[in-house]
């Protein structure tokens, strides 16, 4: 009956997406054939029938006339302007294809050493972390690809990475997803709250992944969700109030981590009447949690010192105070003392730490990665046909300054930006400048950069 209303715009593209009932939000695969209305609105037969029934009874009561129709609460609540164009493609969902073809092919998964080799091109140091992640990711996708192998179920290798700020946690995950060409959602644990409170629902992490996968449910079900700042949802100590953004979020994450069917809104982070819902199974989604876990070191030290001062092997009490590798000795008990609930840690079987960056690593980060900051500046100046060089001493001076800021590799860019400002300002003034050498003196404030004219060499100028 509604064929006459059918949108003529229907095309192949349209066919790939599932229709949703505008009222009950069930997809066509559940609710049966939809009745199409203009503006891409679809209504399932059940809802249509219900609407007619309601109208009939009200009308036949005699206490309603036709104009009252438009005063019915449900009718006036629908904001017509919002349905004119319900977001086009963005709010649609790809139909599940009838014969599910494997999204990931076993043969296509790069071997762990290849994954690590690619990570090496971008991420300096963190050898252990890179190795663990490469193996974990490789195993995970093997598990996904051989879904039929049911006898021996390989368990999911969700990960927890712990490391000081700016040491490459988020960066590592971003590189990994780029390399694997799987959808990646980076969510922030700080914005999550228990359902019903102000903030994002816990399931919103899955909707983010769905968005990253172009609303393709199948693709999303093989993606990676990185939950950053996971340490910020530690159980709050000494509080009598309900801990809606801490412990409750950890509890809410449990079922996602383990694998369950979740109903998520499409194209929005919160559930409400106007957005379609879709079911996503998180069984094959790889979860990586990361956090800086400040103070965790103290918890570990306290435990180690206690152990060390008991009995036969009694040791110096402050033996671990200056140990740079103390974080590596983390145990599940330490994490629990930090405020993570045991069920939560239990679902992250792979726990590893990243090292704080040393001066030498910072120097390497400046110049070695494929997209190193130095290379970026060199390229910028090369466009002016000016060569940019850094003395080794200058790089170490920059690294030392970065170490003082205690923000990891993030400080490098800020510091370099400061020193390069003058240079980027002055160079284009004079066409004759052919080369700039950043000296240690310039960084330490005791001299200027060396400026070389085209074809000749001049002594250092004031910076
Ligand atoms: N090991 C590394 N190799 C190369 N670059 C790095 C490394 N560590 C950090 N960086 C650089 O520093 C930037 C910040 O790092 P990142 O965002 O990964 O920090 P983080 O560990 O997630 O810190 P936070 O806990 O504060 O979120 C990255 O974008 C990257 O450019
Ligand atoms: Mg981060």
UniProtKB/TrEMBL annotation:
Clp ATPase C-terminal domain span: 357-452
Under what name is this protein listed? ATP-dependent Clp protease ATP-binding subunit ClpX
Which Gene3D superfamilies does this chain map to?
1.10.8.60, P-loop containing nucleotide triphosphate hydrolases
Output the GO biological process annotations, alphabetical, semicolon-separated.
proteolysis
AAA+ ATPase domain location, by residue? 155-303
InterPro entries documented for this protein? AAA+_ATPase, ATP-dep_Clp_protease_ClpX, ATPase_AAA_core, Clp_ATPase_C, Clp_protease_ATP-bd_su_ClpX, P-loop_NTPase, Znf_CppX_C4
Any Pfam family hit: AAA_2
Q: Which NCBIfam families match?
A: clpX (TIGR00382), PRK05342.1 (NF003745)
Listed A to Z, the keywords are: ATP-binding, Chaperone, Hydrolase, Nucleotide-binding, Protease
Give the source's domain of life in one word. Answer: Bacteria
One GO molecular function term of this record is: ATP binding
